[in-house]
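May I ask for whichever protein you like with its backbone structure tokens?
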Amino acid sequence: ADDVTLSMLLNHTALGMHYVYGIPLDVRVPTPLELINGSALKFGYEVLKLERPAGTSFSYSGGGFVVMQYLLETLEGRSIEDITRSFLDNAGLVDFTFSQATAAPGTAFAF
């Protein structure tokens, strides 16, 4: 994992977890750390692993973006919602949210 760079997380040339699974609306959404450290096994999330030598080949990795979210939130000390809010608003995406709790009834969720 020491060989993994931010660029590799973004261009899908590191880590595993092909797909990011959904979480039922009636339960607490696990934190990014819980999703990558094996604490969310009941939702299908195993410990995130380095499946191939970092940077060697492309293979879609939703897990890389979960790690990116964890890093951003840890470094900023804020939620991904707070970190991205001004960008999303300026892009005209005022209804976009990362939070199931604050979404309007009938909202569709994609993970």
